[in-house]
DNA sequence: AGTTCTGCTGCAAACGTTTGTAGTCGCATG
DNA sequence: CATGCGACTACAAACGTTTGCAGCAGAACT
């Protein structure tokens, strides 16, 4: 029923190939002819069928974007940035949600494979080998995890975690809990590694609680464990968990930051919503979305360019972190992270 | 480079049509042959090319989902529900974000038109005529707005607004502000209509502030106007604005609900995050997502079934609404909405 | 034995585009 | 005047599927 290129050809008295070129290679066709064609097309309400075009060119001008949980406030800014960046390059973004499930993740990549030119895989829960395998089906750019041989964009959460721990130590905290994230998350491993190292270096003790689902409920659920651990400060895997923890502590009458300091990671919109406002590590999510789109698109033209982009993070000090029981130095508020912070070696 | 149906045919010694049937019409092919074919396909890592299939069948097994703002916590539950519901029926959902822009909205529908079997248009900002026009390009189901002649699923926000106003009146409030939403929003008009009527019926005064962007910032920005209006209670277009308003009032030292009561709409996750926790109108977003998918899918088989699905809303009383200056009756907390509440006539 | 039926498979056309090749025309060049 | 060229356009073959139709066995009727 909808008009095809053939109808337009008939209506304007030229061959279909001329119509095709009138759209996709204007310089190859006489301006006058082209005007005719375009007018006829407009008249008929013709829209090129992208499926047919994709069939022959092999490019769909779509890119897939897979996230673990669209309801996690970490993702929307990344999605929006990727979308508008892609739209500027005449690409459309199809978002899909895996529910934090590695199985669904694989299924989605496979399903998307033939209808997009590439997939942005955000915070994958699959194994590296699984991911490598999938990359043979469709060009992949991984976000929030380096995968050997694949283009990836990661945030330097190791630096963020280190800054957070140093911040807490400088406030006098000597016993710190790390509220771990989901298993399978590279970010989680990075944070644990860096936080452990930073704590040891500073002479503080770090107790790791987890792995946990990266949700508010899960943060609340760990409140007991945190109290039992007898720490004076907590670094959480993300803002969501930090918020859940603060809530649960509040319910138990434990004051933040007076009795326990809490630091989050991500600097989502939520972090300004808590009472007290959350000290957290800001991750450049929008920049990550744009960078991932760029890598995917140039990955088509050029082969294997920069394989790994690392974006810097930053500590944002608000009100949920305060002096610890052992007052030592305490340079206090408004600390800026060192600009020349060492980028983490991003292996695995 | 990737294996095609022809490679599989060659490898298993049958004709391509047999391979095709082995996948899409198993009962038409001998079980033994089929096993052979499937084995060969597996061996070659064959994946059917959906673009090619779509070209001939006319069905892509994809559905588009367009939302105004993916960062608005109202949408993720709807998106997730639609996604998992669709996945159960072997459909994939492509989500796109319009940034609350009617122009982008139209562009996206057009772009999606040829690569999906239908589009779910959530909270459209376009005009009805624009929408009707687009519905000739691609099957449409509209969410959060009835459009004559098109299938739609709406929430009975009118009832919700009425319940909210009655709740406030019963607490003794006589002067109530309505913090309006974005222009072009049907929901906004419904709320205003119902709230105005309910206030008049109950002998209260309703002052309308707006239209406003449906954001937290916008809610905060209206704090001055609310105070100037001299009201004792506010009904906001959505939770986001209610939250922003509460924040701004808090900053000015105005106590909620002691000095001003605030009621939101949507019952997003945010509403449990505020201090005090937000009284709000719960909208069944997940159910709406599922219903919309159902309508779109059956719209294909059967022609024009139920054109309009209306989902009930419910008042959730928490802590941001309290006694007003004129104490009258005050049945108070834990009020349940009447089950047999009259559904609003949902025109335009 | 002839006929119809059933179960399976092959053939080939179609879906709506793109694109390499070849053709036409007029015009300038040698 | 033949040749070459440039600008344009037509032709036709692809891309990877699906599907109506026809063919062909063998089984089951009459």
UniProtKB/TrEMBL annotation, chains A, B:
One annotated GO molecular function is: DNA-binding transcription factor activity
Cited Pfam families? LacI, Peripla_BP_3
The residue ranges of the HTH lacI-type domain are 3-57
> Do the record's keywords include Iron?
no
Region annotated Disordered, chain positions: 317-348
- Quick check: keyword S-adenosyl-L-methionine in the entry? no
Checking Gene3D superfamilies in the record gives: 3.40.50.2300, lambda repressor-like DNA-binding domains
Q: Which residues cross the membrane?
A: none
Coiled-coil annotated residue ranges, if any:
none
Record InterPro entries:
HTH_LacI, LacI/GalR-like_sensor, Lambda_DNA-bd_dom_sf, Peripla_BP_I
Keywords for this protein:
DNA-binding, Transcription, Transcription regulation
Q: What is this protein called?
A: LacI family transcriptional regulator
The organism is Catellatospora coxensis
């Amino acid at each position: 029923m909808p008009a095809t290129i053939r109808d337009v050809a008939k209506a304007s008295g030229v061959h279909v190939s001329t119509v095709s070129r009138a759209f996709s290679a204007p310089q190859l066709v006489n301006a006058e002819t082209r005007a005719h064609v375009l007018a006829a097309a407009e008249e008929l309400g013709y829209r090129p069928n992208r499926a047919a075009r994709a069939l022959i060119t092999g490019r769909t001008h779509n890119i897939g974007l897979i996230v673990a949980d669209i309801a996690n406030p970490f993702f929307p800014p990344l999605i929006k940035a990727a979308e508008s960046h892609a739209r500027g390059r005449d690409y459309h973004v199809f978002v899909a949600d895996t529910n934090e499930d590695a199985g669904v993740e694989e299924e989605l990549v496979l399903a998307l494979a033939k209808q997009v030119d590439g997939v942005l895989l955000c915070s994958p829960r699959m194994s590296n080998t699984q991911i490598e395998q999938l990359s043979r089906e469709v060009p992949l750019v991984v976000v929030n995890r380096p995968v050997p041989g694949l283009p990836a964009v990661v945030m330097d959460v190791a630096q963020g975690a280190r800054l957070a721990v140093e911040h807490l130590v400088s406030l006098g905290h000597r016993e710190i809990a790390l509220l771990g994230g989901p298993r399978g998350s590279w970010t989680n491993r990075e944070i644990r590694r860096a936080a452990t190292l930073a704590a040891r270096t500073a002479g503080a003790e770090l107790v790791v609680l987890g792995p946990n689902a990266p949700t508010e409920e899960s943060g609340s659920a760990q409140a007991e464990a945190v109290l039992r651990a007898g720490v004076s400060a907590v670094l959480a895997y993300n803002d969501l968990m930090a918020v859940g923890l603060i809530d649960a502590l509040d319910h138990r009458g434990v004051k933040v930051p007076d009795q326990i300091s809490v630091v989050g990671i991500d600097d989502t919109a939520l972090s300004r919503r808590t009472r007290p406002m959350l000290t957290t590590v800001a991750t450049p999510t929008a920049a990550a979305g744009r960078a991932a789109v760029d890598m995917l698109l140039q990955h088509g033209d050029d082969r294997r360019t920069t394989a790994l982009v690392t974006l810097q993070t930053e500590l944002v000090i608000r009100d949920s972190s305060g002096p610890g029981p052992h007052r030592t130095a305490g340079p206090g508020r408004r600390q800026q992270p060192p600009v020349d912070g060492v980028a983490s070696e991003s292996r695995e």
